[in-house]
Design goal:
about 190 residues, Purple Acid Phosphatase, chain A, domain 2, alpha/beta, single chain, globular
Length: about 190
């Protein structure tokens, strides 16, 4: 199974207030996210992390966290992901790949993965899924949601791209990696 999550922000103290996260401390947040991850992700699952995995720039810290998470992992790099830490995690085999953008197949569904919401991409917008993070639940998220509805109305009844913010802090994500089937109500 393929799962998705963005903006975990492990070790990021200020994210607690920024997202109004329901944790008493960074350590509590880290442990809760690891527990929720491991409760759903099986060893043969692939989880795509859509950026902003960990606030630490220390490659050893990245490796310590990644080694505690079940399953296979791939990273779409975000603006808070330290290049040296990413490279070390890939070299250690803890990330299968790391890149800023990917087009994948999830079953028979075509999915565009990016840390940032993309309102239009190449010539294959129709019929695709687009998963992203970055905007948390701030003003930019509302702009992305408005644009999503506008595009659906403009192109109805054509099957336009279905988009979802897979940021960990979103209520439907609940700090847990989700499958595309689990996200259907958010697309």
């Amino acid at each position: 199974m393929i799962r998705y999550i963005a903006d975990t922000h492990f070790d990021h103290a200020s994210i607690l207030a920024y997202d109004n996260r329901p944790f008493d401390s960074v350590e509590g947040m880290n442990e809760a996210m690891i527990e929720r991850w491991n409760a759903v992700v099986k060893d043969d699952d692939l989880t795509w992390i859509l950026g902003d995995f960990c606030a630490s720039e220390d490659p050893e810290r990245w490796k310590a966290i990644l080694s505690r998470l079940n399953g296979r992992k791939a990273l779409i790099t975000g603006n808070h992901d330290a290049p040296a830490a990413v490279a070390a995690a890939v070299a250690a085999g803890l990330l299968e790949r790391a890149e800023p953008y990917a087009e994948i197949e999830d079953g028979e569904r075509r999915v565009v993965l990016c840390h940032y919401p993309i309102l239009s991409f190449r010539d294959h917008y129709f019929g695709w899924y687009h998963l992203y993070g970055h905007v948390h639940s701030a003003f930019e998220w509302n702009v992305a949601e408005y644009s999503k509805r506008l595009i659906k109305n403009l192109y109805a009844p054509r099957p336009v791209c279905q988009m979802a913010n897979v940021g960990a802090m979103m209520a439907y994500m609940d700090y847990t990696p989700r499958s595309l089937d689990e996200l259907q109500g958010q697309l």
